[in-house]
């Protein structure tokens, strides 16, 4: 498994970007099936991790789901694993395009996990990905999968 770090952007009020970006990537073998209800399974698993670290529980958000799904589809169409979309946009651009007005946004991506537990275990084993999943600023999340590509977006609206 090859690891890098995760794109982490934070913005409050006027949409300025906070701490410098950290990119993170997880790669694994080919996927053989597509799991059922990604949102519920992922939410339960991530909230279980967050509870272990005394972090607030997350809820799903349809706009984050749209941002995650669009990026998963883009990576599958281009057969490339990157936080930068084929249009040059990043997670902040995708969140805004989906109508998500954020003050915190983070993204984890992976290629190849066979199921949700494998994707989440890979992210939890990586310091940058784990930091995103356990970030106390995150209040909402979404997970999308297209083929071998997985995208998790975490965010906090407004501020």
Automatic annotation (TrEMBL):
Coiled coil: none annotated. InterPro entries: CAP_dom, CAP_sf. Signal peptide: none annotated. SUPFAM superfamilies: PR-1-like. Pfam families: CAP. This is SCP domain-containing protein. It comes from Roseovarius nubinhibens (strain ATCC BAA-591 / DSM 15170 / ISM). Residues 43-143 form the SCP domain.
């Amino acid at each position: 498994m090859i690891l890098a770090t995760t794109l982490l952007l934070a913005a409050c009020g006027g949409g300025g970007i906070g701490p410098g970006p950290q990119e993170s990537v997880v790669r694994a073998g080919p996927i053989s099936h597509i799991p059922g209800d990604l949102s519920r399974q992922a939410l339960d698993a991530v909230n279980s991790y967050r509870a272990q670290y005394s972090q607030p529980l997350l809820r799903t958000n349809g706009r984050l789901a749209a941002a995650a799904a669009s990026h998963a589809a883009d990576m599958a169409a281009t057969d490339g694993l990157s936080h930068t979309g084929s249009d040059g946009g990043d997670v902040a651009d995708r969140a805004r395009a989906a109508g998500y007005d954020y003050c915190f946004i983070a993204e984890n991506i992976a290629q190849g996990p066979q199921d949700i537990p494998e994707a989440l275990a890979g992210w939890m084993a990586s310091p940058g990905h784990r930091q995103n999943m356990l970030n106390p600023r995150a209040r909402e999340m979404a997970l999308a999968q297209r083929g071998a590509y997985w995208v998790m977006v975490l965010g906090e609206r407004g501020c």
